[in-house]
């Protein structure tokens, strides 16, 4: 089995890769962030993408969306520290076939991989119940603008990075602030991050 492992924390990635190679008959390719993972996805042939959610560049959910649109036969399992309702709901909408927390035992991960490769979905029941929580009100454009605002970028920098007019960037931020009932862009980013919508 060919596995692409996308994880930005070096120690976690190395340990996971070593365990996967030890426990199963797997070839593991490592990617240190979302951008590196996307490059590998475009160049190589994989059976499974095992990815974190929060990484520099593309997030695990954005990678799952790319896989859904470009390589639907590829299975995707998200492993994360964050069991937020917004993340789980967005992951399911992106076609993710497995969702596990990083504190799960390695046996649970190996079992999940086997079940996913056999065509089943594997989501912790407690996390699945959480996914029924608040619905994400943000559009993708608002989410991207808010994520950049969270990084401390100015409206002009956000506009440049998203290749849009400054007024459009301002509108996206205003919409997000309004939808979240936030006081300002920093507050909106904080609320969205807590809910798992960023």
Describe the structure.
There is one protein chain. The chain has 198 residues and is α/β, with parallel strands linked by helices. The protein has 2 domains: 129 residues, Rossmann fold (3-Layer(aba) Sandwich); 56 residues, Winged helix-like DNA-binding domain superfamily/Winged helix DNA-binding domain (Arc Repressor Mutant, subunit A, Orthogonal Bundle), CATH 1.10.10. It is built from 10 helices and 6 strands; from the N terminus they run βαβαβαβαβαβααααα. A 6-stranded parallel sheet has the order 2-1-3-4-5-6, sandwiched between helices. Helix 5 links the parallel strand 5 and strand 6. The longest helix is centred in the C-terminal third of the chain and has 15 residues. The protein is globular and about 55 Å long. The two termini are 32 Å apart. The model has no long low-confidence stretch (mean pLDDT 89).
Summary keywords:
single chain, 198 residues, alpha/beta, Rossmann fold, Arc Repressor Mutant, subunit A, 2 domains, six-stranded parallel β-sheet, 10 helices, 6 strands, 54% helix, globular
Q: How large a portion of the residues is in β-strands, by DSSP E? A: 5-15%
Highest-level CATH class of the largest domain: Alpha Beta
Q: What's the overall geometry?
A: globular
Q: Looking at CATH, which topology of the largest domain would you report?
A: Rossmann fold
CATH architecture of the largest domain: 3-Layer(aba) Sandwich
Order of helices and strands: EHEHEHEHEHEHHHHH
- Report the total helices: 10
Spans where pLDDT lies below 50 across 5 or more residues = none
Q: How many independent structural domains?
A: 2
Radius of gyration: 17 Å
Structural class: alpha/beta
Provide the residue-averaged pLDDT: 89
Distance between the termini: 32 Å
Which percent bin holds the helix content? 40-55%
Q: Main sheet, how many strands, which sense, barrel?
A: 6 strands, parallel
State the CATH superfamily name of the largest domain.
Response regulator
Strand order of the largest sheet: 2-1-3-4-5-6
E-strand count: 6
